[in-house]
Design brief:
Elements lengths: L2 E4 L2 E4 L1 E7 L5 H12 L5 E7 L10 H9 L15 H6 L2 E4 L2 H10 L7 E3 H8 L4 H8 L8 H7 L24 H27 L25
Helix pairs in contact: 1-8, 5-8
Length: about 230
C-alpha cells in the first residue's frame, strides 16, 4: 500500500484488484470503470485472470459496451494471469464470481478477509452504518483499508442472498449481445455502489464531531441496486 496526502492528512493508497477468468471481459470492464470513477491518487486499480487469455484483447461487444460509459481506452487492455504477488499486494480483491474468489483464497489463504465478489461487496457495504465507520476510524489515522474491514465485519451478520448466483456477474464471453448487456448491467450496478462507498470512506475524517441522540441510519446505498 502506498501513501498520499489528502487535505493535509496522510492517507494510505488502496490497491484494488479485479478478477475474472480470462481477464478480457468482466475484470477489465470493472478495472476501467473504477479507474475512471475513483481518484487515481488514492486508489491503484488493476485486473487479472484466473485462467487468463494472456495478451488477449477485449472482445468487440465488450468494447462497445465500455464506450457507452466513456471507457474508450479499454481496447488497449491485454489479458494477464493473476499471480501470488498480485494477491499479496492487493488491499481489496473484487472477483466476478464466487468461483474466482475461491481460486484466490486457495492460492493465498490469507487473502480470504480481503476478497469479495463484486456483487457481494456492494451488498455488504449497503449495510454499513455511519456508526460503523465512526467506530473504525475513532482514534486512528485515516486508512482506506478500513473500507475492507467494514465489509468483512458484516460477513456472517448480514442475511445471505437467497441464491449463490446472485453473488456472481454473468460470464458473457462467447455469448450473445443480450448476455453481454446483462453481464455489464450486473457489473456496473455493483461497481457504482462500490464507488459510492469508497468515496465516502475516502472523505471520512473520523468519528462524528458532534454527538447525536438519533440512531444512526444505514448509508444511502441500498434501494438503487438489485442483487436477487
Amino acid at each position: 500500500m502506498r501513501s498520499c496526502v489528502w487535505k493535509g492528512v496522510a492517507l494510505a493508497r488502496l490497491s484494488i484488484l479485479t478478477v475474472c477468468t480470462g481477464n478480457i471481459c468482466r475484470s477489465p470492464l470493472a478495472e476501467y470503470f473504477l479507474r475512471d470513477a475513483l481518484d487515481c491518487e488514492h486508489f491503484e486499480i488493476a485486473s487479472a485472470g484466473t485462467h487468463a487469455v494472456v495478451g488477449g484483447v477485449v472482445p468487440g461487444q465488450q468494447i462497445k459496451i465500455a464506450a457507452k460509459y466513456g471507457l474508450e481506452t479499454i481496447n488497449e487492455h491485454r489479458g494477464r494471469q493473476i499471480s501470488e504477488k498480485d494477491i499479496h499486494e492487493a488491499d481489496l480483491i473484487l472477483t466476478a464470481s464466487l468461483r474466482h474468489r475461491r481460486y484466490v483464497v486457495r492460492t493465498v489463504p490469507a487473502a480470504a478477509n480481503k476478497s469479495f465478489t463484486m456483487r457481494e461487496y456492494a451488498y455488504l457495504v449497503s449495510h454499513v452504518q455511519e456508526s460503523d465507520l465512526a467506530e473504525l476510524f475513532s482514534g486512528q489515522k485515516q486508512n482506506l483499508v478500513l473500507a475492507v474491514v467494514a465489509a468483512h465485519q458484516l460477513r456472517g451478520t448480514v442475511t445471505r442472498l437467497s441464491r449463490e448466483s446472485a453473488y456472481d456477474v454473468v460470464d458473457p464471453y462467447g455469448e450473445n449481445r443480450r448476455t453481454y448487456r446483462k453481464s455489464a448491467d450486473q457489473l456496473i450496478e455493483a461497481n457504482v455502489a462500490i464507488v459510492q462507498f469508497l468515496e465516502l470512506v475516502e472523505g471520512y475524517e473520523g468519528a462524528f464531531a458532534e454527538a447525536t441522540s438519533d440512531p444512526p441510519a444505514p448509508l444511502n446505498l441500498r434501494g438503487k441496486h438489485h442483487f436477487n
